[in-house]
């Protein structure tokens, strides 16, 4: 999503653009999400700081977070930075930096989907957060008030209202529900990205399917080597999501990015059961989302090396809990899907020119919100690359923040 959107916005500013991807558009990270264009998602996902939560994660007692023991030596440095950055001051800065880009996310998607002819993939019903017990409800009510103060539409709904919105949910197992009404939802995220990619080519962009193997500076230009053609250009935008770090490490720019892996699997609904919008089970950390292939069950975060083998333990553990809330039938997938979210410790993306590397531009690290923010931050990236006045202050997203010792280092 981030790469295709950036490419389109560069085309619209008069650039000749070649988009390089090892697979087809929309077949990696942007394929495997809950399909929410999350207008309300301004609050960062913080690493738990209370002792009980840390112990529960460490003992693998929770289903919303898991880790692979064999990967701990590799992921521990990032986890430590993430833990340190999950403080009130960093969260405040991240929230403030999120407000302008999230405020632009629906408008940016709307413009692309209308031009791409894919508006039919998106519904405008919001999504619902479910509470099995009352403990988190006061915090959720406070969040809803804060969102309303920012002009967003969010509020608690009664079980009667929930039953009217989603008749096939078992509301007897719930104590409360919070309806975020502003977000839009997509029934096929991969198809939406592909529609934007088709628009990119229609507008005159060039797509090359190849694996990028390196990037070097040569004779005043950037040379991108692939397992296919070698490309030489004045400007490069790195929008490789979780693969960005490996490329940039080898180019000499080391940034403290980690990955949160995640799984999903589709199930047929039993009988005539229907779900019309995504719902999140707060206690167990999974989402049920209506998709073209069926009901998509998404897991929480798994901390492991990006290339580590699949261990879909979270899906196995949450499936019985999901069936308590909604009548899921058999799986329609041969095996669970696995992807990786690129994430920085302060939960903000990196957007801007690479420090000390003129002409090399960065646009990745959106964590849980690449599908939401790709068009909005793609526009911002294109504005910066072409010298246009950006629609918001880009300073909070610069990679320089990790070189000044600010939050997230």
UniProtKB/TrEMBL annotation:
GO terms for cellular component: cytoplasm. It holds the Pfam family DAO. Gene3D superfamilies: D-Amino Acid Oxidase, subunit A, domain 2, FAD/NAD(P)-binding domain. InterPro entries: FAD-dep_OxRdtase, FAD/NAD-bd_sf. Residues 2-384 form the FAD dependent oxidoreductase domain. One of its GO terms (molecular function) is oxidoreductase activity. Keywords: Oxidoreductase. This is FAD-binding oxidoreductase. It comes from Oricola thermophila.
């Amino acid at each position: 999503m981030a790469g295709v959107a950036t490419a389109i916005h560069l085309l619209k500013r008069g650039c000749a653009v070649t988009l390089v991807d090892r697979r087809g558009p929309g077949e990696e990270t942007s394929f495997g999400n809950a399909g929410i264009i999350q207008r309300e998602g301004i609050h960062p996902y913080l690493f738990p700081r209370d002792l009980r939560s840390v112990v529960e994660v460490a003992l693998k007692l929770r289903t919303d977070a898991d880790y692979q023991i064999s990967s701990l030596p590799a992921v521990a440095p990032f986890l430590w930075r993430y833990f340190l950055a999950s403080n009130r001051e960093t969260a405040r800065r991240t929230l403030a930096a999120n407000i302008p880009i999230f405020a632009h996310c629906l408008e940016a998607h709307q413009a692309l989907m209308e031009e791409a002819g894919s508006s039919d993939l998106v519904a405008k019903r919001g999504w619902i957060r479910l509470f099995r017990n009352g403990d988190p409800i006061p915090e959720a009510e406070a969040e809803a008030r804060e969102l309303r103060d920012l002009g967003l539409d969010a509020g608690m709904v009664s079980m009667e209202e929930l039953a009217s919105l989603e008749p096939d949910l078992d509301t007897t197992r719930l104590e409360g529900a919070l309806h975020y009404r502003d977000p839009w939802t997509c029934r096929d995220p991969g198809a939406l990205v592909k529609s934007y990619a088709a628009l990119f080519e229609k507008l005159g962009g060039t797509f090359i399917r190849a694996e990028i193997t390196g990037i070097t500076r040569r004779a005043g230009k950037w040379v991108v080597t692939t397992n296919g053609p070698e490309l030489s250009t004045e400007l490069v935008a790195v929008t490789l999501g979780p693969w960005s770090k490996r490329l940039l490490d080898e180019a000499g720019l080391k940034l403290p990015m980690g990955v949160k892996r995640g799984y999903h699997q589709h199930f047929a609904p039993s009988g005539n059961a229907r779900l019309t919008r995504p719902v999140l089970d707060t206690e167990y950390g999974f989402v049920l989302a209506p998709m073209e292939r069926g009901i998509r069950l998404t897991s929480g975060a798994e901390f492991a090396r990006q290339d580590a083998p699949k261990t879909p333990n979270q899906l196995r553990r949450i499936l019985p809990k999901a069936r308590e809330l909604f009548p899921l039938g058999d799986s329609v997938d041969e095996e669970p899907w696995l992807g990786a979210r690129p994430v920085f410790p302060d939960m903000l993306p990196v957007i801007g020119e690479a420090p000390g590397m003129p002409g090399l531009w960065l646009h990745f690290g959106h964590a849980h919100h690449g599908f939401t923010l790709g068009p909005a931050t793609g526009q911002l990236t294109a504005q910066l690359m072409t010298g246009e006045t950006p629609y918001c202050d880009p300073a909070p997203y610069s990679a320089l923040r990790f070189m000044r010792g600010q939050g997230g280092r």
